[in-house]
Write a structure and sequence with these properties.
This protein is α+β, with helices and mostly antiparallel strands. The chain contains six helices and 14 strands. The strands form three sheets. An eight-stranded mixed beta sheet has the order 8-9-10-11-12-7-13-14, with helices on both faces. It has a four-stranded antiparallel beta sheet with strand order 1-4-6-5, with helices on one face. Strands 2-3 form a two-stranded antiparallel sheet. A hairpin with a 2-residue loop joins strand 10 and strand 11. The longest helix is centred in the last third of the chain and has 15 residues. The radius of gyration is 19 Å and the shape is globular. The relative contact order is 0.20.
Length: 277
């Protein structure tokens, strides 16, 4: 018996706002609600088409005059760490990992605040309070986990939280929804370490991919993602090897961006059929 969504999801577009990655540009997102008994199928299907989850919403950049944001994922079986990445693994070997249900804690929020104030003080999350943080972590209708990394316990016996990653478990991989770490440990390259450890988690679970979110050529904030081998990007409707990062220009002519109706028509739903115009 063929299972289909009883009602095709509706897609919407956000109002333009300043791009957080490339100066002087405006961003716009195509999004749909993620809820109900078919949420898991929809998340799996749209993640393979470059969408990302934020709470109970799936979104994909759909800017009027730019295609710079490219969804990125690593092929687990083909990944080989660089010399620098092996050093990062050794440097953080003392950290312990704990995987829990998506539940926010005060310790997580305290670390989150320190991270934002040091790294993204002018970002869109800068004013997020503890209730909004809890919603970011806990409002999920799909398989999500919180992965915590802690330093060894000092004399008082309490481990110190070093990094946290909110992670979705997809049918073909792990999707790193959002991660943050102790800014005082920046020299340890914790952002890179969390990705490397997720590759190990995926390998142990026989999952083929680790989804990193968006890579944006020309954005210093996103440059580190290009340092991982076996990296694929979702471009022109297909996943492909990144190759040389320099080959992906962030300069995109407005006429090369398809109209919203055409973009939506190309989206495939969980039952295999395209959306309707």
């Amino acid at each position: 018996m063929r299972h289909t969504l009883p009602i095709a999801p509706q897609f919407y577009v956000t109002a333009p706002q300043p791009c957080p990655y490339l100066a002087g540009r405006m961003e716009r997102k195509l999004f749909t609600a993620l809820q109900g008994e078919h949420a898991e199928k929809l998340n799996n299907t749209l993640s393979k088409q470059g969408f990302r989850r934020s709470q109970n919403v799936l979104y994909r950049p759909s800017c009027a005059d730019c295609n710079a944001c490219l969804s990125a994922r690593i092929r687990v079986k083909d990944f080989t760490p660089t010399r620098s990445q092996r050093k990062t693994l050794r440097r953080n070997a003392e950290l312990t990992r704990a995987r829990t249900s998506p539940w926010a804690t005060e310790a997580q929020y305290a670390l989150f605040r320190r991270y934002l104030e040091n790294r993204h003080a002018d970002g869109g999350m800068a004013d997020m309070d503890i209730f909004e943080f809890a919603a970011m972590v806990e409002e999920t209708s799909v398989r999500s986990r919180v992965v915590e990394y802690s330093r060894p316990a000092p004399e008082d016996g309490t481990p110190t939280l070093a990094a946290v990653c909110l992670t979705d478990v997809l049918e073909d991989g792990l999707s790193m929804v959002y991660s943050f770490y102790d800014p005082e440990m920046a020299a340890r390259s914790l952002g890179t370490y969390v990705i490397l450890d997720h590759l190990e988690i995926a390998r142990a679970a026989a999952l083929p991919y680790v989804y990193l979110g968006y890579w944006v050529p020309g954005s210093p904030k996103m440059g580190y993602k290009a340092n991982f081998s076996a990296l694929e990007i979702y471009k022109n409707g297909v996943w492909q090897d990144m190759g040389d990062p320099a080959d992906h220009s962030s300069e995109t002519h407005p006429l090369s961006v398809a109209p919203i109706a055409e973009q939506v028509a190309r989206i495939t739903l969980p039952d295999g059929r395209p959306t309707r115009r």
